[in-house]
Structure of C2H2-type domain-containing protein:
Amino acid sequence: MGSQQFYECVRCDRDFRSLAAKEQHLRDSSRHNICQLCGVRDYEDADDLDDHLEDDHHFCTGCRQIFSSNWLLQQHNVDVHNLCVTCGRYFTSPSNLNNHKIIHAEKNIECAGCNRQFATNSAMVLHLEAGTCPSEADCQVVDDLATDCRQYPSYRCDDPKYDYECPSCETPFRYMSGLLQHIENGPCDESLDWHRPLAIFLRYIRTRI
């Protein structure tokens, strides 16, 4: 009788009596990381396999979904998994992602009262509220201007514990900077488009400070 042929798994130091048995082992063993889509190679670890699936197959490992292009996968990761495309980090919620994006934003919003630059309008108004602007504006000045602005009825809050509310979702805020941050982070449909109440307020304070 001829000698029995064995099929060796080098990584596990095991022999198998048939090629089918070895292939079954490669598929099932946690020590192996073979792409089930192309089977080209056995990756060193699960992270390497995930990188291959994402880069070569546009595959979302979390949703087990294949996309036709890397761009569509990226959009999926942004919309569903809160991916920051600038640094590649993932966040637990859209609001956390939006808060994070501020660190990447260019500081191109000039203070209404000095030459200091800010990444967001809410940061600029917070600077005014804090009384750190050379213009000597402070929280009271911001509140007075918010009241004087013709758009005040749109964001005035009737609850005595708060001064402002979102014109769209009516979430209340004590400070104007908080209301602006809420709008910038996008949890509701309100925006700072040119014709919207808070955009008009921001233009108004530039004529008064």
User: Anything to note?
Assistant: The mean pLDDT is 91. The chain is about 40% helix and 10% strand. The radius of gyration is 28 Å. Residues 46-57 form the longest helix (12 residues).
